[in-house]
Write a structure and sequence with these properties.
alpha+beta; GMP Synthetase, Chain A, domain 3; 2 domains; 3-stranded mixed β-sheet; OsmC_Ohr_Peroxiredoxin; peroxidase activity
Length: 143
């Protein structure tokens, strides 16, 4: 049985939700500490990160890894997969949806097979499974 791998991140928050702020850190990799605040999350993204941006990054990365594996198992390995995840957050409601998109440079595959494998990867991606309570859409195309 594989050895479980545990990754860790942390957050520090100061003050109340609406006027407070904090940081989130990638503790396992030690690649950075990022500012977070309510305004960036609910009013205008850009100046600091948000939980939804971090979820989008995780989902895009995990999906690309899953798709690359399924394409290789199909004997049609990808040269490149460009993935994007858009996570929509509505204050007072929460995360309302995730839009995944992928454009693949995959020699030897037609658009129909690529779409089928891309959809399978969406269903089998561990992050997609963790976020299964959220509506996840997929747009897949070949380069």
């Amino acid at each position: 049985m594989p050895t479980p791998i545990v990754n860790q991140a942390s957050a520090v928050w100061n003050g109340d939700l609406f006027t407070g702020s904090g940081t989130t850190s990638l503790d396992t990799s030690k690649l950075g500490t990022f500012d977070v605040n309510w305004k960036a999350r609910a009013e205008e993204s850009g100046a600091s990160t948000t939980p939804e941006e971090l979820i989008a990054s995780a989902h895009a990365t995990c999906y690309a890894m899953q798709l690359s594996n399924e394409l290789a198992q199909n004997q049609t390995p990808a040269t490149e997969l460009s993935t994007n995840a858009k996570v929509t957050f509505v204050a007072g409601t929460g995360i309302t949806g995730i839009e995944l998109s992928v454009r693949g440079d995959v020699p030897g595959i037609d658009a129909e097979d690529f779409a089928r494998i891309a959809d399978s990867a969406k269903a089998n991606c561990p992050v997609s499974k963790a976020l299964a309570a959220t509506d996840i859409t997929l747009s897949a195309s070949l380069a």
